[in-house]
Amino acid sequence: YTLDNDLLTTEQRQFYEDNGYLLIKKLVSDEDIERFRKEFVRICKREVNPPGAMIMKDESLRSQFGQSEKVVNKVQDFQEDEELFRYCTLPEV
């Protein structure tokens, strides 16, 4: 549950409580998003292999996208990847 403060609107808090996530556009710079996207793709292609990271795929998309990163719906336990974990430490987040 969210705390009553001036960081989020009432509507944003309610959306988060109902859905479990909140999208805030332009919270993170385009440059950072591009760096995170590139690292995500590198992990999906197994160009880097952070210890303990698990790649979760939606196998129903394989016929449409093959082995591309578009079938990956989650990278779990990525904290050992310095670049992706940097997202968690951004002051904006």
UniProtKB/TrEMBL annotation:
One Pfam family, short name: PhyH
Gene: Phyh
Residue ranges crossing the lipid bilayer per the database entry: none
EC numbers on record: 1.14.11.18
SUPFAM superfamilies: Clavaminate synthase-like (SSF51197)
GO biological process: fatty acid alpha-oxidation
Protein's UniProt name: phytanoyl-CoA dioxygenase
PANTHER family per the UniProt record, alphabetical: PHYTANOYL-COA ALPHA-HYDROXYLASE, PHYTANOYL-COA DIOXYGENASE, PEROXISOMAL
GO MF term set: phytanoyl-CoA dioxygenase activity
Similarity comment: Belongs to the PhyH family.
